[in-house]
Amino acid sequence: MTINPIIKAQFLATGNKKVKKPAIWLYPWSAEREYSRDLISRQNFYDDLVERLVISQVDSLVAESRQFRPDSADIRLDFVDRVDAIIGSLVFTFRNNISNIARLAINQSQRISSFNNQQFTKTLQSSLGVNPFLSEPYLLDQIRSFVDQNTSLITNITDTQTRQIKELLLRDLSAGLGSAEIKAEIRKIGKFGKNRARLIARDQSSKFDDNLSELRMLNAGITYYTWLTAGDERVRPAHKAQNGKEFRNDTPPASTGHPGHQVNCRCTRQPVITDSLFN
User: Fold this and answer.
1) Which of 244, 248, 253 lies closest to 222, judged by CA?
2) Which helix (H) or strand (E) element contains residue 102?
3) Strand order of the sheet with strand 268-271?
4) What's the rounded Cα separation, in Å, for the pair 4 and 124?
5) pLDDT at position 66
6) pTM score, two decimals?
7) Nearest-CA neighbor of 279 among 19, 14, 15?
8) What share of the chain is helix, strand, coil (3-state, %, to 5)?
9) 246 forms bridges with which residues in the sheet?
């Protein structure tokens, strides 16, 4: 692969004789944190609704469930119907008061794309002294894919929690558990939601960022990258072993895949820009 002709023309026009070492390509920490805050805020709103619409009803549900007798189908039906009504109210209120999920994903795709483009521009300027405007026909499809995937993942968090809460209520009320025990179990489900939201924010941010890194480097005619880890104790041993090694942008390493594609990976690609690209 040879360097993009627009970049080559600009570099030759600078009169520079040698390619310099490019600046370090950074991970989008700020964008990831902002996305995490957005998703946690959504989860906090959901948890508040669970407290107000579900947990506040547990005491009376427990009292009601203890009234049914094996020979009284009507009473048991009333108890199940009431759980259905409570869950229905939770779903209706949440969906009618929460911000559009797709908008959260669109905002994040724009933050990541902007930051990634800054890194791309920075490396070309530091290495070649150029700042080319390159068409990016792949970008819209990448954003659409990110938004669709994230909308599904985010929706699934509260859908899963709602299903778990309903199943928990029916099971525990039928088993005769007390109010304190049931409330504690419902609140544990809330912790799952926040943990899942944080995981999605990191995992999807790193994957999208690396996808754009690959496409922008290939579009520029940069064949190889150097693997860079986050450089802390949380780096996987397998990824630590890759640190500093060169790989092709179009061929993921068999043992790890590209940086950022395994769950919770914060590794990045450092473009390899050398004089040989201009031969």
Assistant:
1) 248
2) helix 101-128
3) 246-248, 224-228, 268-271
4) 12
5) 76
6) 0.90
7) 19
8) 70, 5, 30
9) 226
